[in-house]
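Field log, afternoon session.

UNIT: design team B
ACTIVITY: writing a sequence onto a fixed backbone
BACKBONE:
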């Protein structure tokens, strides 16, 4: 048996183990995916600088790349186990069992998983992988399936002619490849089946069926001129499907509204628990709020604006009774993620809420269904807990998920602007051209934007009508473009009179700063 054949046997065996594990997890519903569990442990274990690099370099593709990396590593390990099985088949089988054991251990960190069901997933996956390994190694050695006539074996020792021996060996190789390929295909189908059975389709139907209550306080109507509608300019409201997503969940949690609960606990006088139905019955508000990720580079797209609807945080805290010394509100997700910010912020800001809707629709699964925290003026890493399970009042010494990983304890959003038109590196025609973009400073608002072309003077841009101090504002400047290469800069002034700084800083530890700068080519 060649090393390549043995490696293929190992890969097919581990594929079968993973596929069956995914299928069983999908059938059982409450058992986590072992692949996702390992990925979550990787995310939790890597140093902060590597996480920052991944977000900055890969952006929204960070999770698919991580999953692809896990599968590549798994494939390499599987090939090694197959090669080991040429001489130490029992050790290779033990390797598959160890592989499953690591997945089971990783899954224990997920608070949603049932321990016994997780073990069952791992055991069934490992048993399948070991069985397939033994099967394929037998086919590779004998050229026949178990139970078939011994005459079908490859008669290398008794073969009298080279042609006869070659033909028999080729038949045995084809049989091995057929079995290995069929096993791998079934493994892929099992994995896809597990994904489909996990409830994601039903979750979509559930979300679509929800009818939102009428808020007691609606957001202000959009005034004429609030959306400039310039081609290429970011719209006033970011469509849900285009809204940025940065979080630690490799797979979006599936939360059933029948079993979901929101706990308000910790340093409060009267802790309480709400069901989804009870939460939806409470008075709700609407607010137009721009959210931004602390990992957003200057001029980046990890920022979005939406009309949110939900229950004011202040109302929940008043009901619970905040105790003296409870200086931090810590949001806890169903998957264990945490983010904390000053309690006084939740009490002072009327728009801080437990959101249940986004742009007039129930929260999409990717953005936190059934409920999430939305707090204007704070980066998401300290405030925007998705798939919310608990609101816990603590003192300031308790750290959220990102703080030990090198991020600042407090995360106020900096005054920022972005140039959308023209695009960086674009080629435009000489003559009158628009320079346009958005600027944001939630809780402070935007009072002005200035633009500078090359070494010319700063010129005041025209601002769109104001919608709310918590959401971004579009701006526009007509430009008489002349032939050649040009450098364009922008800077914003917020409602406190503070001008966006030109000091260039990285995203860590509390958000990037500096002017957005683009270069364009103008052709006569």
């Amino acid at each position: 048996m060649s090393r390549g054949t043995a490696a293929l046997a190992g890969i097919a065996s581990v594929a079968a183990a993973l596929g069956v594990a995914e299928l069983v997890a999908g059938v059982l519903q409450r058992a986590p995916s072992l692949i996702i569990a390992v990925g979550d442990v990787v995310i939790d274990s890597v140093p902060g600088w590597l996480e920052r690099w991944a977000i900055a370099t890969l952006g929204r593709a960070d999770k698919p790349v991580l999953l692809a990396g896990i599968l590549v590593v798994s494939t390499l390990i599987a090939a090694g186990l197959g090669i080991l099985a040429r001489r130490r088949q029992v050790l290779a089988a033990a390797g598959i069992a160890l592989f499953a054991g690591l997945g089971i251990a990783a899954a224990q960190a997920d608070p949603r998983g049932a321990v016994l069901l997780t073990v069952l997933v791992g055991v069934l996956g490992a048993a399948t992988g070991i069985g397939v390994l033994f099967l394929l190694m037998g086919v590779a050695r004998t050229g026949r399936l178990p139970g078939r006539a011994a005459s079908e074996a490859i008669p290398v020792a008794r073969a009298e002619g080279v042609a006869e021996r070659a033909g028999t060996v080729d038949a045995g190789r084809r049989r091995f490849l057929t079995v290995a390929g069929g096993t791998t295909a079934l493994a892929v189908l099992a994995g896809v089946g597990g994904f489909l059975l996990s409830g994601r389709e039903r979750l979509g139907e559930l979300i679509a069926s929800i009818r939102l209550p009428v808020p007691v306080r609606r957001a202000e109507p959009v005034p004429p001129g609030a959306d400039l509608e310039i081609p290429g300019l970011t719209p006033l409201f970011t469509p849900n499907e285009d809204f940025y997503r940065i979080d630690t969940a490799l797979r979006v949690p599936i939360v059933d509204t029948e079993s979901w609960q929101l706990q308000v606990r910790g340093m409060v006088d009267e802790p309480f628990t709400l069901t989804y139905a009870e939460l939806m019955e409470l008075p709700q508000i609407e607010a137009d709020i721009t959210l931004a990720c602390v990992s957003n580079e200057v001029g980046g797209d990890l920022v979005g604006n939406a009309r949110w609807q939900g229950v004011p945080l202040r109302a929940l805290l008043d009901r619970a009774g905040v105790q003296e010394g409870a200086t931090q509100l810590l949001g806890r997700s169903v998957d264990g993620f945490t983010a904390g910010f000053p309690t006084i912020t939740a009490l002072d800001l009327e728009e801080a809420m437990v959101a249940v809707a986004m742009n007039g629709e129930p929260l999409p699964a990717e953005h936190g269904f059934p409920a999430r925290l939305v707090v204007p003026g704070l980066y998401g890493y300290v405030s925007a807990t998705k798939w919310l399970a608990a609101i816990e009042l603590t003192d300031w010494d308790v750290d959220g998920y990102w703080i030990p990983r090198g991020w600042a304890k407090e995360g106020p959003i900096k005054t920022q602007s972005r140039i959308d038109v023209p695009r960086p590196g674009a080629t435009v025609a000489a003559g009158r051209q628009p320079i346009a973009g958005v600027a944001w400073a939630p809780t402070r608002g935007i009072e002005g934007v200035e633009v500078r072309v090359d070494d010319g003077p700063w010129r005041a841009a025209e601002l769109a009508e104001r919608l709310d101090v918590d959401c971004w504002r579009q701006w526009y400047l007509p430009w008489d473009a002349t032939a050649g290469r040009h450098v364009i800069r922008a800077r914003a002034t917020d409602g406190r009179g503070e001008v966006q700084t030109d000091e260039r800083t990285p995203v860590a530890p509390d958000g990037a700063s500096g002017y957005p700068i683009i270069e364009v080519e103008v052709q006569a």
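LOG NOTE: Confidence is low (pLDDT under 50) at residues 149-162.
NEXT ACTIVITY: expression trials, pending approval
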